[in-house]
Design brief:
With about 350 residues, the chain is an alpha/beta fold. A six-stranded antiparallel sheet has the order 4-3-6-1-2-5. Strand 7, helix 6 and strand 8 form a beta-alpha-beta unit. Helix 2 crosses helix 4, helix 3 packs antiparallel against helix 4 and helix 8 crosses helix 9. It is globular, with a radius of gyration of 22 Å.
Length: about 350
């Protein structure tokens, strides 16, 4: 339940930090409502959740709890829940989830697997999107993964999964999944590429399994680039990073891609030297040639990598709004330390530092 508790804490913090931006709350929680359909959540359960939440906060707050504070919490939660219910109702035309069968499972190391799955119903997605996966070994436990490549003619999908710890979805998918196993997919979400037409030089920056959405973007780019532009060297530059050379995978595919696409240059980058940050070498490689003001960059990988490379690109002169990234929903490790102790965090909030009366 640690992941679920952390996910709930993030939802609360998002509400608190966006109370002055109701449009953002509505958009985010509408998507949450659509996504929660795969869990079978019904409107009546939201009411039960509200009651349980108020009781839990009242116990944690102790002497700091007031009727006005409870009303503020209830108003806030109901605003988000209303958006979730509307989001679920608006998605009734699509399945709450998609069943799929594993058609290929390739280990690329002791803790990394590339899976191909065939959905039982049509599953449409755009390059740069992700979806949540559920293993039959862990019912009702979902984790987000980017979709890699393009759907095959028979509708197959590809996922790159790194095992991040014991007992979770990633371990089940990497070490305990074989061809013929069943999994379930949530609705596709996100839009890393934003569907924009490519102008100027494009830098694609990926670290480890961040290569998955970039692989999908390359297929899309091949269709977008005009024949007259395909022979311009450096039109698209792919920087692919990993901790060590042995951690780079899909290398045969990458070599073939670079040979058959004159507009693409692939630059592999491994971890930094002693005394520097893990992603410093990658940031230097990306900015070695000064980016043109009209160029763009798309980043996929760990949040710290994205922050490091984004800062380097903006210092090198690339406008901040030309650098795009869309991180996957974070797990407990990505949360601020104080969120783990919801009691003490709650007490600080109840003292009036975050919640309007």
């Amino acid at each position: 339940m640690a992941f679920q508790q952390a996910h709930l804490a993030r939802a609360f913090w998002f509400l608190l930090e966006h109370l002055d931006r109701p449009d953002q709350i509505t958009a985010t929680f509408t998507q949450l409502g659509r996504d929660h359909r795969k869990l079978g959540v019904r409107p009546a359960q939201y009411a039960a959740f509200e009651t349980a939440l108020c009781e839990a906060l009242r116990i944690r707050a102790g002497e700091h709890w007031t009727a006005e504070l409870e009303q503020a919490w209830v108003r806030m939660v109901r605003f988000g829940v209303t958006a979730m219910v509307r989001g679920a109702e608006a998605a009734l035309h699509e399945p709450p989830c998609w069943r799929a069968t594993v058609t290929a499972h390739r280990l690329c190391g002791p803790d990394l697997a590339v899976l191909r799955v065939r959905p039982h119903e049509t599953f449409r997605y755009r390059a740069g999107q992700y979806t949540a996966l559920e293993s039959a070994r862990l019912p009702h436990t979902w984790r987000p993964y980017y979709l890699a490549g393009e759907p095959g003619r028979d509708g197959e999908l590809e996922f790159h999964v790194r095992c991040t710890g014991p007992g979770g979805v990633s371990e089940a998918l990497v070490r305990h999944t074989t061809v013929g196993d069943r999994i379930r997919l949530g609705p596709p979400k996100g839009n890393l590429a934003r569907g924009e037409e490519q102008t100027g030089e494009l830098r694609l920056v990926a670290w480890d399994t961040g290569w998955a959405p970039v692989k999908a973007l390359l297929w899309e780019l091949e269709g977008r680039l005009r024949p007259a532009s395909e022979h311009r060297p450096g039109r698209v530059r792919l920087f692919l990073g990993a901790d060590a050379l042995s951690d780079l995978y899909d290398t045969e595919y990458l070599s073939e891609v670079e040979r058959s696409r004159p507009w693409l240059t692939v630059v592999p980058v491994t971890g930094g030297t002693p005394g520097e940050g893990v992603y410093d070498r990658l940031a230097r490689a990306v900015t070695r040639s000064r980016p043109a003001a009209g160029g763009r960059a798309l980043l996929a990988g760990p949040p710290v990598m994205v922050q490091t490379v984004t800062a380097a690109l903006t210092r090198a002169g690339l406008p901040a709004d030309h650098v795009r990234n869309e991180p996957l929903p974070a797990g407990p490790r990505d949360l601020p330390g104080f969120v783990g102790d919801f009691g003490s965090a709650g007490t600080r909030m109840f003292q009036g530092q975050s919640i309007p009366a």
